[in-house]
Structure prediction request, 875 residues.
Amino acid sequence: MAKKYVYSFKEGNKDMRSLLGGKGANLAEMTNLNLNVPNGFTVTTEACNRFYEENEEIWQDLENEIISHLHELESSTGKQFGSTENPLLVSVRSGAVQSMPGMMDTILNLGLNDKSVIGLANKSSNERFAYDSYRRFIQMFSDVAMEIPKAYFDSVLDSVKEENNRDKDTELTADELKEIVEKYKKVYKREMNEDFPQDPITQLKLATKAVFKSWNNQRAKIYRKLNNIDDKLGTAVNIQSMVFGNMGENSGTGVAFSRNPATGDSNVFGEYLMNAQGEDVVAGIRTPKEIHTLKEQMPEVYKEFEDTIKRLESHYKDMQDLEFTIEEGKLFILQTRNGKRTSSAAINIAVDLVNEGLISKEEAIMRVSPDSISQLLHPNFDPEDIKKSTLISKGLAASPGAASGKIYFTSEKAKLAAQNGEKVVIVRQETSPEDIEGMIIAEGILTSRGGMTSHAAVVARGMGKCCVAGASEVKVDEENEVMRVDSREYHTGDIISIDGSTGEIFEGEVKKINPTLSGNFEIFMKWVDEIKRLKIKANADTPQDATQAIEFGADGIGLCRTEHMFFKENRIIAVREMIIAKNIIDRKKALDKIIPFQRDDFYKMFKALNGHSFTIRLLDPPLHEFIPHNEEDIKKLAEELNIDKKVIHDTIIELAEVNPMLGHRGLRLAVTYPEIYRMQVRAIMEAAIKCKKEGISVHPEIMIPLSIDRDELNFVKKEIMEEINMVFEENSEKIDYKVGTMIETPRATILAGEIAKVADFFSYGTNDLTQMTYGFSRDDSGKFINEYIRKGIFEKSPFETLDIKGIGYLIKMCTENGRASNPNIQIGVCGETGGDPQSIKFYNEINLDYVSCSPYRVPIARLAAAQAEIERKNK
Ligand code: ADP
Ligand code: MG
Ligand code: MG
Prediction:
């Protein structure tokens, strides 16, 4: 039997989305739920892929299959294609596997021609409606199937409106619409050198082809890249009999969400327009009405609508995004899908659905993508600074976030400005899919027209980008690049700030402050912590970062880089003096100057951590990094230290290395100069004792970088323990502490069994380990790694996501051997990959104890760790 490429809605269901596309699968599901869905059928994504193999032509068998389904549709609707009495009209709708709103094309009212339009007028006794549908069809078909610019038709429409003093499209009479149709056909003929196609089958073939081709239009490609959607999935084509929202004042069309997609509020949220069709609501042509007013206008329709949307929500167990049309008082459902939402809405909805008993905590956790919550962790405008700022106007709070930047009125100019490093806010009357690239680079988006479901609002929410839409007091003159509010004017390059959570627009830049976790987010993260197994620690070198990390739920600090403390203004001079010192006596003198600073640093860190564990890495980088290299700074240093410039030059020569990445650093430094680590551990323990006396509990974990060998580690360990014991004796006080090492060299992973005997913990430094295992410099390899990605050799940079095959193998082996020889050893990761969800999945699988990442990634890592654990259990 030949392969089946076409399915009627009755044959499909929601689980067939990879074949039927999301739209087609859900139309089928709703048909089988006996909802009012206009009849139709779906041409599969497999047909789309074959279409590309057939050199972008519809092959004969497919045509036959489509026509046979069309005949079925004719008999089930009692209408005929092209009929002069009761014509069948269809929509030809794209529908990808994953929703790509507004990225691909749809044609409505197909089947109209000079004869069937008369049939439609007679059958509906509504000539105005028939010609309104025809003019819409000609324009859409020309645009989508023939790529004739929309603007040619818009200017015809505008001029007829103007001649007849019509403000809105709905005021046009039947005769005026007839005139428009005639003029539209002339535009078509002018552009195509042939008449507008009158044969409905020809129309259908061309439209189907155009929808297939829209899979590969520029904006769809960009959208897929941005959202990591596979280019090979293809789109389905849905061919569906039309229902009409443009039949008069008791007809209309709308879009609605079963819950608020911006906030997650549980009330139905939506917009509609009476006497309108298809995209009118989204396109921002007229300002739509808020869905709740439909309750007064058509109470019965509203009741049915509300029941339907709630029923679909419980059926799909998720917030639904619905498209509907009312034809002369009868409700039709044209689309449903799981609605896109902001990350704060995602959290609120997930928590509410659990509380309503619709889903489990685990399902709720799996619904929120870890990377998306970074939105919630980003700074908001400081309320104090808002008070001092000048409010320009207020629009709809379409997508939360706080953005400041220079205003630009076109996507192209915004893109150029962003390439030059400027922060940009795009200001437009409304956005369209052509603006997608500009929206990607912008800090925020401001539109003067359109509602909460306008293109700008939907796309911005999808991207997690700040957006204020429908700011109607703001008059945007795109052509002259000026935005006016009352008598004030703002031009290209002026700075504004927009608040996507309140809709407010301010002059100039408003200061930002860090957020806190509260409300449903806090509840959600509690569930996350109940389920996750991995501990999440943070990398932090300052008390502020440590406090932020604890606020974000970190189980302590997994990496404090002490060299960052060395660089601070008031102590770098002593550090340099220590490095230049020619003998141990001079070096100790300099170290004595540094120790009060270090002690104070550690004291403040312990205090901020208030009992959480604190992993402190002793000095790691090669010493030459601390010495200035340009002549002016060398001169200054010589003056400050009261020495000859030559001494510094000599030191520079002495410290110079051919290959500093593989140089005298980490543990090797400590073997040469044990007094440096002695100074550091003394500072740590003195600070710890001071805290203990003040009643603050302390858990220092001393981490030695870059070890390669058990005896090497043991040598340094003895040195520092001797110093620590001296501190304990001097103070008649003891502190519990651990000594462990970073595993960053391939040799250390191989000798893990030996090294583990002298270490309380291992922490994988995946940056160095990756660098040394690959033999690539992390700082220089960007250039060719990108090329590897482009040429498909690497999928991602191994410095961002762990290379599970190679580095992951070493880590797994090292962990197993380390634990075998020291069952109490604690093992974690503190490199860049510690905060990467994909890598976390692997770390969870091999049973590490913790990962450590930057404070802002802590909540992301917590969620990723919980998801990893749920997935492991479900396996
Ligand atoms: P998109 O994927 O861009 O939303 P759709 O295929 O959903 O495109 O269609 C665009 C608009 O046309 C929607 O508002 C939809 O409700 C409307 N529409 C599609 N098919 C029909 C139909 N058979 N009858 C009436 N309106 C339709
Ligand atoms: Mg749609
Ligand atoms: Mg390192």
